[in-house]
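Lab notebook, design round three. We kept the backbone fixed and only want residue identities now. Task for the bench partner: fill in a sequence for the structure below.
Input structure tokens:
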């Protein structure tokens, strides 16, 4: 014989910031980084995935636009998000930040949308950075449009370096030692105020502090700036000392 029980409805996370994240199907890094950057006691993070190509080209990046509204619609929809992030740096440059916002808001209710490009511009403004040394894992042709959009925002990228990798599954496995060596080489040049480590799939979080110590300049990365910007849009302050000056000094 079954028994029926009375219950009450209660939202245990109502006091948390409600954040959403659209992650590329091929990305193995950003979720892990975000769980480290956004403490679960202050932020509730919901994640969805969008189809993405195994190889990174301007064409495969552009193809994501059509799938973005559906991907965003798969986020839980019983509340309004304070902010939702789209986790692709180069994809934002190809599709456009304003278009990304429009596509995400077609799929879910959110007060704000960010992406690594918009977040990077905001971080540079926060730290008064005008010239970036830019390290990309991808072919230079993938980064050209991103650098052009940075220039349009008043941020120059006179120093550029790349691992010249096209396969996404290889990008996530580029060693921390290789990232440090390349970033230090670029960052030590006089014609830059800071270093940017591009790509949400590149494992950068644990090397930021080491690079900053060696070059005595701020180091920004795609996941770091996006998490910081989403937190800022939601009225949160991140409390970390090991993930770069952007977070420790904000």
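Proposed sequence:
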């Amino acid at each position: 014989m079954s028994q029926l029980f009375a219950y009450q409805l209660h939202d245990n996370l109502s006091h948390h910031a409600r954040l959403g994240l659209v992650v590329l199907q091929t990305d193995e890094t950003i979720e892990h980084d975000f769980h480290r950057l956004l403490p679960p006691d202050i932020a509730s993070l919901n994640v969805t995935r969008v189809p993405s190509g195994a190889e990174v080209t301007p064409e495969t990046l552009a193809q994501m636009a059509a799938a973005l509204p559906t991907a965003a619609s798969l986020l839980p929809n019983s509340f309004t998000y304070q902010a939702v992030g789209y986790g692709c740096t180069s994809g934002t440059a190809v599709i456009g930040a304003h278009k990304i916002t429009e596509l995400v808001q077609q799929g879910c209710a959110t007060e704000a949308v960010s992406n690594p490009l918009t977040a990077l511009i905001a971080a540079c403004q926060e730290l008064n950075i005008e010239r970036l040394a830019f390290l990309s894992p991808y072919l230079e042709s993938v980064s050209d449009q991103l650098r052009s959009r940075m220039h349009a925002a008043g941020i120059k990228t006179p120093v550029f370096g790349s691992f010249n990798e096209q396969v996404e599954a290889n990008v996530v496995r580029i060693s921390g030692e290789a990232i440090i060596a390349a970033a230090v080489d670029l960052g030590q040049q006089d014609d830059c105020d800071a270093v940017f480590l591009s790509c949400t799939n590149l494992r950068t979080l644990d090397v930021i502090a080491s690079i900053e110590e060696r070059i005595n300049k701020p180091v920004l990365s795609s996941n770091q700036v996006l998490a910081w910007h989403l937190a800022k849009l939601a009225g949160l302050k991140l409390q970390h000392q090991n993930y770069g000056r952007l977070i420790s000094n904000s």
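Keep this in mind before ordering anything: Residues 163 and 235 are 36 Å apart (CA to CA).
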